[in-house]
């Protein structure tokens, strides 16, 4: 056998050993983008039956699809691409994975070191390409005849472990190969994946709070008026019951965002508040209510109203932040105590500590405000059935009402996530919500939703600019049950609520209205598409899409000025009801 044939077979054996070891370490899904230099690894993945592979041409979209898959399964997903600029297309998604604490395994193929810096085609410096945005970086030596399978097995186990603990996120493996990349003839046809080697056992710890920290916290908050604020996070299924029991003991409200996944689930939601976007606004009496403590879980709140309420109250209260990792989610710099602990364990420890309840009148303020805002919202929904122009405050609850239990909902950034926060309401029917709130970009949102839909049916709620930004993702929608609802308000509607709206350059520089026919674009990708102009048409379209299955895009034109006026009227009515 020639040296060239030896090298091709060596590449394949080396790649298969690594892929088999990744499968043994628990990897079950990979997203591959076609390329030459990655050929040994691509073939190894496609022949490893324990790993479900998807092939997506666009590396940028592939990375966001993998991100969505990892969000939905809570397990690492591998990405594979060729050398050169290809892995650079992963950057937006891996930044989101970094900031959003989502496990990804990045496998970039590379040219051998003797080609780097000598003008070789499709060759860039890929060493530490992603800087501090990855949890760890590995560049093992080129495949050699005496390579160690034990080393590759432990490298695979370590990479998987690094992606999950102590802070979940992306891990980068840069893997160089010399040509020829594969053996020829019968050797290539007959080489197959081996049985997965024995797994290396990796046991991450459970972060339990120190007893003294729990005692000190309870001494600071017990018997005083306060609130629990739950931002977006990938909480364990036990968190809802644990935090509601703690709120019952402390007799305090829980202000919970949609991405906390506390709004739609069957548990004791008697202290849950989801209408704070309306009742914390002046002139509502609660806008000036000042708690003496706050217990915060998850990410910092999305909406400006809640952020400003927290800022105004910060000077006179104790802020306790619970975080399960080494990060400090405290952008206002108000935390007086940081509990680094698993959220469920923190709730259980505080509950066992026997915290004293707040004065009885305190929670009553929030309960009455929540009920008043809920009554106004219900009246708006009941009066909207015959209206021709749909608005976000009525169409969002109508959408959620029609989804079956257990359905997944991905919400885009900008105005969509704020509307979901303001108008979703809550209920016993379990729904699971997702969003890309790590870096909060509008890039890759449709691709992320497609990744989530790989594990089950998903509805994506996005704005028109968000949809256009990732429109080519629809090329990979085939075979997935996904409904994309596009709220088309003629551009960047969120900027209507910012000072730039008064500038003469507003439309050109910020609103940026587009002229793309989103329904026609969906059809060009083989995706069903409809444009609806009333709430009744929207609900009927969603019901048809649910029955039909597969991929559907539904465009909902929104009158931007009427939407702004409708929000202001809703806030006015809530404040009036409270006054």
Please describe what this structure looks like.
The structure is a single chain. This protein has 579 residues and is an alpha/beta fold. It has three domains: 3-190, Rossmann fold (3-Layer(aba) Sandwich); 211-368, Rossmann fold, CATH 3.40.50.1220; 389-578, Thiamin diphosphate (ThDP)-binding fold, Pyr/PP domains (Rossmann fold). The chain is built from 20 helices and 18 strands. The chain has helices at residues 3-24, 39-46, 59-73, 91-100, 149-162, 186-190, 211-221, 239-250, 276-279, 304-313, 343-352, 360-382, 392-402, 415-423, 445-453, 464-469, 506-511, 518-524, 535-548, 560-578, and strands at 29-32, 52-55, 77-81, 104-110, 136-138, 170-176, 226-230, 254-256, 272-273, 293-297, 318-323, 337-340, 408-411, 432-435, 458-463, 482-488, 528-531, 551-557. The strands form three sheets. It has a six-stranded parallel beta sheet with strand order 2-1-3-4-6-5, with helices on both faces. β1, α2 (39-46) and β2 (52-55) form a beta-alpha-beta unit. It is globular and about 85 Å long. The model has no long low-confidence stretch (mean pLDDT 91).
Low-confidence stretches: none
- Binned, the helix content reads 25-40%
User: What is the CATH architecture descriptor of the largest domain?
Assistant: 3-Layer(aba) Sandwich
Q: Provide the CATH superfamily of the largest domain.
A: Thiamin diphosphate (ThDP)-binding fold, Pyr/PP domains
Percent range for β-strand residues = 15-25%
CATH topology of the largest domain, by name, is Rossmann fold
CATH class of the largest domain: Alpha Beta
Compute the CA-based radius of gyration: 26 Å
Mean pLDDT: 91
